[in-house]
Specification:
Blueprint (H helix, E strand, L loop, with lengths): L2 H11 L5 H13 L30 H30 L11 E4 L2 E4 L9 E6 L11 H8 L5 H6 L2 E7 L3 H11 L5 E3 L5 H4 L6 H7 L1
Parallel strand pairs: 3-4, 4-5
Antiparallel strand pairs: 1-2
Helix pairs in contact: 2-4
Amino acid sequence: MCPFCFATMGLIVDGAVSTGGLAALAVKVSRKNRAGEVLPNSDEGRIKMSTNTIDNPKIVSRDEWLAARKKLLAKEKQLTRERDALAAERRQLPWVKVDKNYVFDSPDGKKTLADLFDGRSQLIVYHFMFGPDWKEGCPSCSFNMDHTEGALPHLAQRDVSFAAVSRAPLSKIEPFKKRMGWRFAWVSSFGTDFNYDYRASFTPEEWQKAR
């Protein structure tokens, strides 16, 4: 079976069949770990997400549906071509040399940004939203991680390493990671400029200026 299809089926089987389904599923993920154990239901410090669903479409004949589907398919194919062209441009963007020596806290001690490559030539860094004063990680990020971990062996086979980075201290990350049943590399950038330098976090002054 195609590896990409295999990863995609994991999302489909979870029942995410609409935008509303995705939102509702993200909330569900934040309430259970990978073993299916129900997590504490306290809303204190929790990020709430919308569970609104879309209205049911009208019922039509098979011929009407096929005509509408073909019309939409033409748009989908055009979007695919445009997305592929945009991705090609993205791959050609110039690189920037990393001059700052970023050091992260990990379960195995201090690690530099170079260490996160783990001997491979490429590294995917996921900025997992988990602030120093938060009690748990972002529900949407949690949803993504539940469907990312299974793909990591495929990335490793293609010379790509993966690491999540959060501003929360390791003392908060590790219990949450254990609660969710995850095994991927997750380090803390607490006390560093990493998230700010890469525009994943902003100071209060920057927020005020942007308003």
